Amino acid sequence: MGKPPPLPDEMRPLLRNFLGGQSTLALATAGLNDGRPQAAPLFFASDDTFNLYWVSDPDSRHSRNLEDWSDVAATVYVHTWDWADIKGVQIEGAAMPVTDDEERQRALAVYSAKFPFVNERFSDLIAASVFYVLRPRWLRWIDNERRFGYQQEFTLSGDSEPASDDTQPLSS
Question: What is the CATH topology of the domain spanning 9-155?
């Protein structure tokens, strides 16, 4: 199977709106030394290029895992009890602490715009916290509102072959 196509321009507004309307991502990491998986729910904000930002304690298990191995998976989805309403994004990419001051300011701006309570109640805490970023390289859009099992896979950089609306999971 070939590599999924690059994310088309017509999908970008749909994904931006979807990510902007959700508060929480589930981040999956693994420790390189012990191989133990970790899934963590995190409030997040995204920028126009689909970088996902969150604030976390550097001593948390998922943050320590990122020190060992930056490859991660994440999912963002609507909460529903109806199979026909399942909709979300599965993501693979690299995650790391934000160390560049300019990027940190951008992360703080998008995070604070999405979560105004940060400015009102937690500005000192956020200012002293570590921002992390997930830079997606692959995503799968799932939308059962279109039809049960509907999915599309895309890359976020590089050239690739065309794929259908029914692309299959990447195999390892």
Answer: Pnp Oxidase; Chain A (2.30.110)
